[in-house]
Amino acid sequence: MARVLILSLIFRPDNVSTAQIMGDLALDLKARGHKIYVISTVPHYNEDDKALAWQPLRPFCGMLVQQSDYFGIRVLHVWMPDKDSGNVIRVFAWAGFHVASIIIGIFSRFHPDVILAPSPPLTITLSAWFLSRWFRASFVYNIQEVYPDVAVDLGILRSPLLIKLLQRIERFAYARAAALTVISEGMANRIRSRVSHQEKIRVIPNFVDTSDFHPLDKKNDFSRKHGLDGKFVVSYAGNMGKPQGLETLIEAAGLLRELPGVHFLMMGDGSETKSLIEQAGRLKLTNVTFLPYQPYSVMPEAYASVDASFVPQAPGTSDDGIPSKVYRIMACGRPVIACTEMDSDLARLVIKSDGGAVVPSGNAEALADAIRKAFQQGTAWLEKGLKARNLVLQEYSRAKVSDRYHQLLVELQSRRSGKAGKP
Q1: Where are the extended beta strands (E) located within 71-127?
Q2: 399-411 confidence digits (pLDDT tens)
């Protein structure tokens, strides 16, 4: 078994998908006999009071570096400002995390065999590579999003000089990593021409804990609290940023304002939240409710309360992976309306499972039409959610996906042992 350092910008008790996936994976690898150590940041994206209660942070090096115990796994948390802090502050903090993670890694008593580093950010690969050289360890780059492609495709990154610099870092990471794990076939195809040794690329999807996320009654504490009983609810849950293109959902709500009983529920936060609320206000929509991020423990009931869950991908980003939230929705037995390009991995997933509907990215009229049809289908529409869950149980359960990471670590460890044994 291997000694694994997980170097991740986000980890539990933060309440976002990457934190939860990495936390679950760490526990599963530990259960399979690997020794796990984590270097991350303090919760700064979406604090979860319940998670903090059972995983409290304690000072380690003042408040600059804190520590926690995650079910027997030691986690060191480097200070990071809140996600709403200014860009300049965040850039300096990110740079500080990279430096601090190297220093912590070098002076810790944990000498890893394998370093697992998920993106974003792309630059975390530089810290991971440095530590892999220091400890003569293998370095695995877990590509959750292809950078800098995502930022370029969305028009967020436009400086030719910065794009070129990040592309060089990307190629550097691909060349130095012992393995590149990507979460979809589309992502694998996107980077193949940039990788010299194709055997490095491993498609290992994200996963869902099907014991945490499973079908529940539509009428529950969450639905009663937020007045959803008796309504056909279309929801979105997660980050409200530019990549999600959520203005399309608000436009669809406007087109369906006269359809009785149809209600839109927006759960989350992000850079576009204010703009979306203002858009709903300009349209004078009374069929839209905004809620902040909900704790992880509440999400099974939240998903159960809805009839259709909206999972978007902005135009031009269909090869950037599959939003991990889709597996949770499907595990809860709820149909998905995917707003994406028709040849995307997300579209193929929904079509393969017959677990919902697919509409083109950015097309509010097509989205409204899909919601109207779902509303009219009644029970037949909800049965699609059970088909979606069946596919998740077959291919995307936590146990099955974690085992693929375990097999990769065993392979890398065996390869290292073989090199060490050569004269």
Answers
A1: 73-78, 114-118
A2: 999 999 999 999 9
Residue 356's region, left for phi above 0, alpha for psi from -120 to 50, else beta, is: left
Contacts of 378 (CB under 8 A, 6+ apart): none
Closest to 182 (Cα-Cα) out of 243, 138, 119, 273: 119
Sole residue written with tokens 């869902």: 208
Whole-angstrom Cα distance, residue 287 to residue 295? 24
pTM: 0.89
pLDDT of residue 420: 53
Q: Which residues contact 185 (CB under 8 A, 6 or more apart)?
A: 203, 345
Q: Which residues contact 100 (CB under 8 A, 6 or more apart)?
A: 64, 65, 78
Please tell me the distance from the alpha carbon of residue 63 to that of residue 6, in angstroms, as a whole number: 21
Domain 3-207+397-421: which CATH number of 3.40.50.300, 3.30.428.10, 3.30.450.40, 3.40.50.2000: 3.40.50.2000
pLDDT digits (tens, 9 = 90+) for 200-222: 999 999 999 999 999 999 999 99
- Cβ-based neighbour number of residue 274 at 10 Å: 11
Q: What is the CATH number of domain 221-395?
A: 3.40.50.2000
